[in-house]
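FAQ: What does the model actually see?

It sees only this:
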Amino acid sequence: MGKIMDVSLTFESKDEGTIIVGTNKGLDHLTYPEIKKMIGNKILIKYANQNEMVLSVSSVQISTSMAEKKNIGICIGKLVSPDLVQVGASIYSLEH
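And it is asked to produce this:
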């Protein structure tokens, strides 16, 4: 189980549902396919209070800034409210 990112933003898209956005300097050297494979189909969210939740991933978007930093967006669909994923929560991969 590898850490994907810390949540810096959550929002709701009319078409896609809830999207979680964050960064992880340790992944900046990886390619889009490598990060997407690492994320997989399910993610584990760990909150500051040690509560955890497993969610399904419906899509992944990755953009690279001019400073070569990766911004990772994980869509978790329309069934999950953006209020359930707090800024600062940590996102982990369930892939091995």
